[in-house]
Amino acid sequence: GEGLWKTATRFHGYRQDIIDERAGVAGTHVIIEESGAPTLLVLRLKVVNELITEIETITTRSRTEGVIFNLDGLKAPSRGMQFVPDLKQLENREEAVRIASLYPAGLKAGSFVTVDVPYTPVAYRIENGNNMAGPGCTFAAGCENIKTQNIAPGRTTLTQRLIAVDERMGIVWYRLSWERGTNQRLVVWEAFKVYDGHLHAVEAFMKLDPADLGSGWEQ
Q1: Which residue of 103, 131, 134, 146 has the lowest C-beta tally within 10 Å?
Q2: Which helix (H) or strand (E) holds 179?
Q3: CA–CA distance from 164 to each of 4, 96, 139, 175, 206 (Å)?
Q4: pTM exceeds 0.90
Q5: Cα distance between residue 164 and residue 10, in whole Å
Q6: Angle at Cα 19 formed by Cα 15 and Cα 20, nearest 5°?
Q7: Phi, psi (rounded to 5 degrees) for 81
Q8: What are residue 212's phi and psi, to 5 degrees?
Q9: Per-residue pLDDT reduced to its tens digit, 127-177
């Protein structure tokens, strides 16, 4: 009866579910309202023998907490992530993970070109509702092309944890984090849309956490 059970009042627009039947993981990126105020919520459930055995939640309530907080970009789920590929378009689980894992490899290298992430020409990235790369991006010069855009130098402190693979929808879900400034880590829950041998879209909810907080699930 405490926490979000007490403060959440309703859903609000955007919701992207991720279901990994093989691993027994169900998750979502969703906007809820807490006493009328919007909150970005990441939720992960682990299910074993029809019982919930793990619950993980992350909330971002403001730009101060999330660096970016653009609710206008989160009025509804995107067509890119909602697209259901034909079975023949889908990669097997291992190949989908390999393709998605090139993204954090590119962040570490400081270049998506160096690791040759197989983006489509119209691939995009949205972070906390803001278009950060791909067609229509105005965030920075050159961001219209996600593969060649300038990204920060290699994130040597980056850690990654594979959360789930939605094999029917072609979505690979990772939790990434790296140091940002002094005594902080940026924690980013990234959903990657993978099919036809390419990475089509990246959509993320993210939050700043104290550097020493950890996720609690490292083991």
Answers
A1: 131
A2: strand 171-179
A3: 23, 11, 29, 10, 17
A4: yes
A5: 26
A6: 155
A7: -80, -30
A8: -100, 10
A9: 999 999 999 999 899 999 999 999 887 688 899 999 999 999 999 999 999
